[in-house]
Amino acid sequence: MKRDAMLLVDALRNPASTAALDANGWTALLAMARAEQLIGTLARRLSGLSLSDAVAGILEEARINAEYQRRSALWEADCARRALADYPGKVVLMKGTAYAAAGLKASEGRHIGDLDIMVAHADLPQVEAALLAAGWEWVKDDAYDDAYYRDHMHELPPLIHKERDRMIDVHHTILPLTARPKPDAAAMLADAVELENGLYVFSPTDMVIHSAAHLFADGELDGGLRNLWDIHCLLTEFADDAFWLSLKSRAEHNQLWPAVHRAARLARQLYRTEIPKDWQSWHRKDKWYVLRLTARDNWGRGTRKFTRLIFYIRSHWLRMPPLMLLRHLWVKWRKS
Amino acid sequence: MHEFRVKVGPVGFRIGSEWKRPLDQLAELYRDYPASDIPDYSVRLEAASLPRRFFRPSVAISGDYMLPDAAPLPLSQALLAAEMAMNLQMALGWRRHLLLHASAVEKDGKALIMTGASGSGKSTLAAMLGCKGWRFMGDEFVLLDPVTGDAVPFPRLISLKNEAIGAMQVTTLDGRFGPLMTGTPKGDIRHLVPARDAIQAMNQPAKPALLLFPSFGFEPTVRDISPSEVFMRLTQASTNYVAMGEAGFTTLTRFINTVPARAIDYRNGEEAEALVSQLWGELA
Amino acid sequence: MAGPQSPFYKAEPADQLLTVPLDAMTVIYQRRSGITHIVAEPVPEILAVMGVDVLDASGVAARLAAQFDFETEDAEAVVASRLEELAMIGLVECVGA
């Protein structure tokens, strides 16, 4: 039996391969899929196969839960739409909610958490005021965190709706301001695509760019297999010759070509995503990413602690220049 | 990691532990239950930190579903930790039935369901009735089938607290009790294995026939309770009502429209039993 | 209340709602949001008379009077504030004044 999350990767890529699993193999697969928040996606991928009652029951539960998350996410987006009805600018849905609202394959069975939206930087005060008037409130009133968010982050401090208990993150760009790449948020807003209900989603290229930026720069690769599955689905759904060309130039314009290129290579390596021939070069560091992405044991626990630690330090390094990182960690330590 | 697998009602669990002893205790207490082939949930009892595996060992609870701020328990309470972790998986994960935080017993294919805040005595009442001609269905969760409306048993170990331990030791045979755990966050706790017939019938659902909201410590009385109040209290007693969506709504409204509900007050087991027989007899 | 400034509303389509009267209270499940609302008279009646039409408080009050004998002195004011609350929870949507 495979001893890491390649088991999950294989099941997603080739659902028929699960026919060879014994009871312990299934138990490990399901635990990993839960840990990676890919169980709903797995349920969709395996639907139609003949499965044991035990597995079918677990996947049915995952399907019900994914449906609940999708319904809540789309409703939350609609609540934001109504709250911002008088705001003339574009309100762009991001990540899972965007995929669901646009009816993309990446949303099938996907775990969706908080609502993420993006608006023009200059309009943040207006949007903030409208949300506060419609029942959202600040999650925490800690001065340091607040100042930290406002000075260095790409989003407002999180807001939560006082009755529905749901969070919204209001972004004005796709990466923290301290990150090295400086994406062109204005161009992304300008090219955003309008949905029937008046909300927007990013254009196909920008969706991929945001997803790749999110995968590498916005965390410690936690949940990386899910983000990479998004990228696999987006690339597969959008793929045509013109798309690859515009994706590359758009990514370069946003200083995110290395992230997009690496995401495409890793998606090909793990999920066999079809990408252009001249994108298929293999980078010597890619194998570390694969090791990190698949570091799970058959209880769903994270393994490879050393690899994880490297990625943790690296992720903070990416987001913040060193002195600022030190100050940030110091404040966090003193408080805990 | 040591491992133990068990099936309770429709739910299979895999319990992993860095220590063998807690799993031996579980295996002893769950000896009448079937094993689970592909378990629904995994839970883990792990050392809160590496030194805590050996020195004043303490157990951190984790699993498929976790609470970020669950405090570790001393190793002597590992059994409690396992039971809490199993309940947590149900509370956070289960979506195949509408989950009510309630106890239930069965007679003639019909279920008596009891719900209320902790301290209402619903758990002790179910355990007691389980020794007096009723079939014990569960003292923590009742599962309502969205298709049939039936109550599905989840007869895990009965978790007796404080005074209830002494009361049940009088009426129950020895050999069905777990170790006494003193000084837990909930006071003294001792687990009781449900009667063998309850375990053997754990896959047999029952038609919900009566819903009671017991309150312990007051003069015996029976009060009516309005359907809308029942609705509100049951949504609060359900951890998955919202996630179940439309199925949750139709299951709950059907339950409320077909199952009579009463609030009862009682001061001791005899009074409760008398009220239950009276109300059960009044069902046409 | 009525006049050129009074807001107009559209109700959530009837096939998006499951309505079960329990006693003085009615529970309404909204399919789109997955949220259950516990409401009292005249909320179920308001939703029923609105149908697919765009109406303001006075329009709704007139229909309530015709179909449900719901006719109090300040019917229009009551309806106006109920509509405002219903808009907050998303069972009706304000479509302009």
Keywords:
heterotrimer, B: 284 residues, alpha+beta, eight-stranded mixed β-sheet, five-stranded mixed β-sheet, 9 helices, C: 97 residues, three-stranded antiparallel β-sheet, 3 helices, 6 strands, 36% helix, globular
Summarize it.
With 336 residues, chain A is of the alpha/beta class. In chain A, 56% of the residues lie in helices and 6% in strands. Chain A is globular, with a radius of gyration of 20 Å.
The averaged pLDDT of chain C comes out at 90
Estimate the global geometry of chain C from the Cα principal axes: globular
The total of beta strands of chain C comes to: 6
Largest sheet composition of chain C: 3 strands, antiparallel
Low-pLDDT stretches of chain C are: none
Q: What would you call the shape of chain B? A: globular
Largest interface, per-chain counts? A-B, 22 and 22 residues
- Read across the widest sheet of chain C, the strand sequence of neighbours is 5-1-6
Helix content of chain B: 25-40%
Strand residue content of chain B: 25-35%
Helix run count of chain B: 9
Global Rg of chain C: 13 Å
H/E series of chain C: EEEEHEHHE
In angstroms, what separates the terminal alpha carbons of chain C?
12 Å
Largest sheet data of chain B: 8 strands, mixed
Number of helices of chain C: 3
Radius of gyration of chain B: 19 Å
